[in-house]
Amino acid sequence: MKILKRLLSVTFWLSLALYLFLLVWKIPLPSSDLIRPELTTFDPVQTAIKQAPYIWHVKDQSYRITPLFDYETVGLVVAEYDSQNWLDYSHKQDPAQTKDLCLIWGENIKNGVYRGLKYSHGEFTCFVNWTEDQGKIFDFNRLSNNHLLPASSKPAALIKSSSVGDQVRIKGRLVNYEILDKDGKIISTRKTSTIRQDRGCEVIMVDDFEILQKQPLPVQAIKSILPKLLFFNGLTNFILFLLVP
User: Fold this and answer.
1) Rounded Cα gap, residues 240 and 226, in angstroms
2) What are the DSSP calls for the chain, one per residue?
3) Has residue 112 got a pLDDT over 80?
């Protein structure tokens, strides 16, 4: 029994160390030979639509959605931010918001500059750092931060499973939205970018989300399993501590 306790203890600390490492480790982006051709040739497509604003309920929150354009884009995920993490208080009144995915495409992939850049993500913004030489060939108009509102459970699950290094396709509508309190008063607003030449976020009501190619390293799967392993391992250790002298 003592051997079992020691084995569980070692497993717990190794799992915890691996989980903490994966939280801060910068996942390497796939090489150009693993990039699908459409990511180098496809530019975002948007078409103006006439659709009246409507009220949308997510959990206990009400939204007024104003659709502006049908929208489709593809890209390589170079940074992400999960708005539903427990440390994020700025999105607590915005349960429809799931993830921000920062995408690049086109010449940034063709010329290979994407692998040498440094990416990060805050609560609302994607950041890219480059050297002077990289800046001469990097096309900032082929990078976008996409604020994703899944329209149903299917795209929501796929968005949740996405990670840095994935190649994705997003279809939906560019929208503005207002978050309303129980009396219909506006709590906050979010407006979408409608051009690629600015630094604003594309706010997308996602109807269809497709992972065209997963990141070769199963980092997301490991990160999702480790907390469960840590919990059951810790619980078992605690029970053994109480039962076994």
Assistant:
1) 21
2) -HHHHHHHHHHHHHHHHHHHHHHH--PPPPPGGGS-THHHHPPPEEEE-----EEEEETTEEEEEEEEEEEEEEEEEEEEEETTSTT--TTTT-TT--EEEEEE-THHHHTSGGGGSEEEE-SS-EEEE--HHHHHH--GGGEEEEEEEESSHHHHHHHHH--TT-EEEEEEEEEEEEEE-TTS-EEEEE----SSSSSPPEEEEEEEEEEEE--SS-HHHHHHHHHHHHHHHHHHHHHHHHH--
3) yes
Name the average pLDDT for the chain: 84
More confident residue, 215 or 27: 215
Domain chopping of the chain, boundaries: 1-27+218-245, 30-216
pLDDT in tens, 45-86: 999 999 999 999 988 889 999 999 999 999 999 998 886 555
pLDDT tier at 210 (50, 70, 90 boundaries)? very high
